[in-house]
Amino acid sequence: MTSIPLNPMPATSLNPAASRSKKPRNFRFSPSLSGYLFITPALMILGVFLGLPILYAIFLSFHKVEILGEMSYRFVHLRNFTRLADDGRVWIALKNTAEYVAIVVPIQTFIALMLALVLNAQIRGKNLFRVVFFLPTITSSAVLTLIFMWIYNADGLLNHFLEGFGLPTYNWLGDPNIALKSIMIMNIWASAPFFMVIYLAALQDIPESLYEAAKIDGANGCDRFLNITLPLLKPVTFFIIVMGIIGTFQLFDQSYIFSGGSGGPNNSTLTVVLLIYQYAFKSLEMGYAAALALLLATAIVLATLVQRYLFKEDMPQ
């Protein structure tokens, strides 16, 4: 006769694998999935306020839009784009914008680097200088433009200053040969401090040990700048140049305020964005304005790709 144990062991204790299988599992997201979930709200906002307007602009560029009365769209194929090639004002705006970009971007980048080098040195009151230099960046663009209109006036501060030194005065706002350059001077003065701060942060990130090793090897200040500072600043320089190109291609408010929205004198301050505004909100040619906007976007992308190609050997992989 077999005896039955008083306290038989449970079946799960005899099968450890079965016991483990019944334990609750903690569900975890993969790191990549967690990252996508975190950026989903930002992507939705970008899609609504950036992606959809881009798609709508592409749609408009192939249509003639009637906005007076009941809004209607008439498909015109590539007529808006072919019209761009025959529009003389488009070529003037492109020329002015290209000239503005070609002059402002290199000068503001150079000045920003020089200011950053000065403020990165051990000088007295450098914190005060940082604040003073950065003030134009946080000031409203419209306010700065109105201030410079007063400075550029025929009886303004700048001409009085030139007269004091016996130098010739100019019609800064009324001369077609000078008007655009007046905007350049103002924007270089206002935008260089912003890029100065970026350069300054990059300079402070360069290890001091590299300079100390170069000093031990007998390198002078110029050698250290050319062989250490500039190469290590190339990724930052690429970012600054690309941001500068994008910003200068989109010149609008200064040109609008200086010329009263006309792009004068003699179309000398007419830019692509100002021309888009004129066609869209004065002539009410939304389709043609959208085609011009796509042309501007294409120019910005191409300029960025060129910069990427020029800096590709120095960019981190």
Automatic annotation (TrEMBL):
SUPFAM superfamilies: MetI-like. Residues 1-18 have a biased composition (Polar residues). PROSITE patterns: ABC_TM1 (PS50928). Residues 1-24 are annotated as: Disordered. It is found in: Cell membrane. Its main location: membrane. CDD domains: TM_PBP2 (cd06261). InterPro entries: ABC_transporter_permease (IPR051393), MetI-like (IPR000515), MetI-like_sf (IPR035906). Keywords: Cell membrane, Membrane, Transmembrane, Transmembrane helix, Transport. Residues 94-307 form the ABC transmembrane type-1 domain. It is a multi-pass membrane protein. It holds the Pfam family BPD_transp_1. The chain crosses the membrane at residues 33-59, 100-119, 131-152, 178-202, 232-252, 288-311. PANTHER family: ABC TRANSPORTER PERMEASE PROTEIN, INNER MEMBRANE ABC TRANSPORTER PERMEASE PROTEIN YCJO. Belongs to the binding-protein-dependent transport system permease family. This is Sugar ABC transporter permease. It comes from Laspinema olomoucense D3b.
